[in-house]
Amino acid sequence: MVKTKERRVTQSQIAIDLAKVPKNSKGGVLVSQEEIASAFEFFDLDSTGKITLSNLKKRLGVFYKNMPNKEYRFLMNNKSEMTVQELQDLLMDNEVQNFDPVAEAFKVYDPHSTGFVDSEILRSIFQNLGFGEISDEDLGILVETGDKDKDGRISLQDFRNMLAEGEKVAAASSTETAEAPKEAAPEEAGG
Question: Which domain covers residue 138, as residue numbers?
Fold first, then answer.
């Protein structure tokens, strides 16, 4: 068996260009209505119309194993629950600068700073989110789907492209839903 040396990549080698991070009107990170709706749905585990501190911990705990309670409270704006409107108010006009949310999210999947998603981390995350046992075949399909440049692995740029495609699909889906003709009420029998 041949051992390969693990390649480490520094943050500067991962090609983070903060100038390309979309900005809102206050110069902070742009967060769209679709992103807020998707995030809210992801964290509202009980479908109550509220994100609770407990649900936030359940979801983020999959990605961040040792996150302190103080950080969860900060993310919840020191509240025990939050509505979609409160989340929108918190995020839409943020003034967060010098931050690339996609690169930060990518770090979760690349904990060893190799520049590529760690397949076993990907498997673990999907399993811990409740998708059941992820077979090697399933894992191969996940990697193939995310590997936009077809080099056999998921880089930060692949990750960006995958998220951008997902946003386009979500936006198209919400547009189709909004434009769908409403069904006419059945006419009353007799007359």
Answer: 100-179
